[in-house]
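Hey, I was hoping to borrow your eyes for a little while. For a while now I've been wondering how a particular protein folds. The fold is given in discrete form, as structure tokens running alongside the sequence. Could you read through the record and tell me how the tokens relate to the sequence? Take your time with it, there's no hurry, and the full record follows here:
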Amino acid sequence: MSTTSASLLERIRHDPAASQWQTLVELYDPLIRGWLKRQSVLQADADDLVQDVLTVVARRLKDFEHNGRTGAFRTWLRTVTINCVRDSWRSKKRENANQGQVQELLDQLTDPNSGLTQAWDLEHDRYVTQQLLGRLRSEFEPATWKAFERVALDGTPAAQVATELGLTVNAVFIAKSRILARLRQESRGLIDD
């Protein structure tokens, strides 16, 4: 994992190296696939749709503009997914009972205030955060990571963590701060605070 100041999205847009794209695919393939599965999309259709979504992302990411909007990438990805599902259903001319369900699903996802859209956004942010944390772990010493994990993720008081790990309270706060700063750096544009 690069420790440059650029986020993953910025690195891909400015230098679309295969390794950076692979990281994006590893982040988003399981997320999109899981979401499609929960919406009862057949496995074969889900495979095609995931490939379609990632192909569109690869082609159009250079044109994506975040412009400081909260949730811009997440919303853009959701829109790409909606359009791929819609195009797939249109091209297959599905004239069965599921057509109404699919249209209702797409309508809900188009509405930024719907429960389904809010669930998509929450799932996206949680999933991407977990994946990025997993990738960042190797950049830090085990004691630093443990201090961060106990304070930031488990909610353990810093004084207790300091005692458990033989660190100062200040060292625990520094560990938390360093890892959160690195996470914010890497996730810039992907997830929003």
About this structure: The mean pLDDT is 84. DSSP finds nine helices and no strands in the chain.
